[in-house]
Amino acid sequence: MRERRPLPSLSALVVAGAALYAGYRLRAALAPFVLAAAFAYVLNPAVAYFEGKGLRRAHLVVLGYVAALGLGAWASAGIKAVVVGEIDSLTVNAPTYVGKLQGLAAREESLLTGRLPVPPEVAQRAIGSAVDAGLARVQALPSQILGLVPLLLHALLVPFIGFFFLLDGPGGFDRLIQALPSRYVEQALHLAGEIDRSLGNYVRGLVIAAVVVGAVSFVGLVLLGVDNALAIAALAGATSFLPGLGAVVGAAAGGAMAVYQFGSLWAGAKVLILFGAIKLADDAFLEPLISKRAVHLHVTVYLLALIVGGEMFGFLGLVFAIPAACVLKALFGVVWAWYASETGLAAPFASEAEAVPYV
Amino acid sequence: MDALRRLTRWFVDPQFEHRKKFLGSLDLFADLSSGDLGQLARSLHARTYRPGEVVFVEGDIGRALFILESGSVELARRSPGGEPVKLYTLKPGEFFGEMALLESLPRSATATAVETSRLHLLYRTKLEALLRSQPRIGTAIMRHLARLLSARLRRVSGALTAASAAPHA
User: Fold this and answer.
1) A189 vs B64: CB contact, 8 Å cut-off?
2) Which of A52, A63, A163, B142 suits B148 as a labelling partner, its CA being 20 to 30 A distant?
3) If you average pLDDT over every residue of chain B, what do you get?
4) What ranges in chain B are assigned the alpha helix state H?
C-alpha cells in the first residue's frame, strides 16, 4: 500500500486566500511590480541565452541597460522632434478637422434624409441622434486616453524595478525550491514548468505581435498620407496586447483621422482596408505564433477571463486576464495530474509488444 | 592580449563553468558539446539536501532525474515485512530516478541524503522542452537512457536465465 502524500492544511489555504485578497486590495501599489515582473519575464530569454554561453548575468544586465540608455539618449532627439511635430500638427489642424467633420455630417445627413423611406423629420431625428452619439463618443475619447496616463507614469518605474528582477533571474525561484519541503520539490518544478511552457510562448508572442502590428500600421498610414501616423500606430500596437483589438482600434482611430483629414469616406475606407489586411496577416501568421504550444482556452473561458479581469483590475486586468487564465489552467492541470497519479486513475504505459522477448 | 584575457575572465561566470565541467564529466552527457552543456545547465535545478533529508519516498510519483554532485545518497526499499532494505549508496557523479523521465510511475525506492548533498534535478517538462528546442541534447540524453535500460534488461534476463537453468536444490 502506497503512502499518501499529505494534503495542504486548511491553514495554508487560508493564508493563500488572505494573500490573494491583500493583493487585490493593494492592486494599485502592486501594478508597477506586476508590470516589472512581466517586463523581466519577456526579456529574460535574451539574458538566459548569453548566460548559457557562460557569461555573468549581472554584467549582461548592466551592459544591456547601459546600451539601452545610450540608444535611448541617441534616439531621443529624433523621437522628440517627431512627437512634438505630431502634437503641433494635431493642435493646428484640430479646427480644420472639426469643420470638415461638421460639413461631412451635414452633407451625409441631407443625402440620407432624402434617401431613407421614412418621413424626413423622422429620418432627420434618427440621424441627428446617431451623429450626436458618435460625437459624444469622440469627445469622451481624450478623457478615456487620459485615464491611461497613470500607466504611462510607470514607464520609468517599471524598467527600474525590472532591473532588479532581471539581476536576480531564477535566484528567487531557486530559493523557493530550496525552502520547500523536499517531497514537494518535484511538484513545484512540474507546476513551474507547465506555467512557463504555456505563458512564455503566449506573452513573448504577444510582444512580437504588438511590435509588428505597430510597425506595419505606421508604414501603411505614412504611405496613405494620414496625419498622426505615429500616435495611431502606437495605439494600435499597444492595444494588440489584447489579441485582435489592435487592428480594430487602429482602423477606428486611423479611419476617423483619414475622414477628418481628407473629408471623404473613401480615404477612411482605404485605412479600413489597410487594417483589414493587417488583421488577416495577424490571424494567418502572428496568432499561430502566439498560440503555438500555449494553453488553448475555450472561447467562453477567454471571454469570461477578459470580463472578470477588466471588471476587477481595469486596463491592466484586460492585459493580464489571458495570462492569468493560462496560469490557472496549468495549475488545474497539474493538480488533476497529481490527483490522478496519487489515486491510480492514470493508466500506466501498456503495449502488446511487452510480450515479445527482449533479444 | 592580457587585457582581453582579463576582460574575458571578468565576463565569464566561474560557477557556471564549473557546473558545465561537472555535467561534461558524466556518462549521461558524454556526447554533448560545450555549447550544449551550457544550454543543458540552464535547464537543471540545483538543490542542497541536509543529512537525513528524504529526496523522495517509495511510492511517490516520480517526475525528475537526480544527479549527485557532492555528498552521498542512500537508496532503500521496504521489504514485504515493512523493514527498509538498503539497496545502494550513490557517489558523486552518479544519477538516479531516471525512469521518471519516461513514465509517471511510483518510485520503487526511497532516496535519503546520507550527508549534506548537492543534487541537480532534470525535470521531465524541461527534457521535453529540450527535445523540441534542442533536439541534439534531448536525443543524446534519451539515447543514453535507452542504452542504460537495454543493459539493465539484458542483465536481468541473464540473471533469470541463469536462475532457471540452475539445478533445484
Assistant:
1) yes
2) A52
3) 88
4) 2-11, 14-24, 34-43, 124-133, 135-165
C-beta atoms of A185 and B129 within 8 A: no
Question: Given A52, A178, A346, which is nearest B39 (Cβ)?
Answer: A52
Position A164 confidence tier, pLDDT thresholds 50, 70, 90: very high
In this complex, how many residue pairs, one in chain A and one in chain B, have their CB atoms less than 8 Å apart?
A: 92
Best interface-test mutation with A: which of B32, B47, B73, B120 has the largest number of A CBs within 10 A?
B47
For residue B105, the domain's CATH number is 2.60.120.10
**Under 8 Å CB-to-CB from B156, ≥6 apart: which residues?**
none
Using only C-alpha atoms, what is the Rg of chain A? 27
Range of the domain at B92: 14-155
Task: Write down the domain spans for chain A.
Answer: 31-108+140-169
User: Could you tell me if A181 lies within 8 Å of chain B, comparing CB atoms?
Assistant: no
pLDDT tens digit sequence for A247-298: 888 998 888 888 878 878 888 899 999 999 988 888 777 776 666 555 577 7
ipTM greater than 0.85: no
B56 contacts B107 by C-beta, under 8 angstroms? yes
Cβ–Cβ of A54/B20 closer than 8 Å?
yes
Whole-Å CA distances, A220 to A223, A258, B90 = 5, 12, 65
Q: Which residue has the higher pLDDT, A201 or B91?
A: B91
Chain B's closest residue to A55, CA to CA, is B12
B54 shares contact with chain A (CB less than 8 Å): yes
B103 in a domain, yes or no? yes
Task: State the DSSP H helix or E strand holding residue A211, giving kind and residue range, or none if neither.
Answer: helix A185-224
Summarised one tens digit per residue, pLDDT across range B9-18 is 778 888 888 8
- At A1, the pLDDT band (50, 70, 90 cuts) reads very low
Nearest CB among B53, B106, B129 relative to A182 is that of: B53
* CB-based contact B65:B23 (threshold 8 Å): no
Q: Which long-range contacts (CB under 8 A, 24 or more apart) does B153-159 make?
A: B153/A358, B154/A358, B157/A358
B6 domain residue, yes or no: no
The model's pLDDT over A205-259, given as tens digits with 9 standing for 90+, comes to 778 888 888 999 999 999 999 888 888 898 888 888 776 788 888 998 888 888 8
- Give the integer Cα–Cα distance in Å for A91 and A228: 11
Residue with cell 529624433: A78
CB contact under 8 A, B46 and A174: yes
Overall domain count for chain B: 1
| Structural domain includes residue B120 | yes
Task: State the average pLDDT for chain A.
Answer: 79
The phi, psi pair for A148, rounded to 5°, reads -85, -5
A298 to chain B, any CB pair closer than 8 A? The answer is: no
Q: What is the pLDDT of residues A23-57, one digit of tens each?
A: 888 888 888 898 898 889 888 888 988 888 888 89
Instruction: Give the closest of B60, B103, B153 to A183, CB-based.
Output: B60
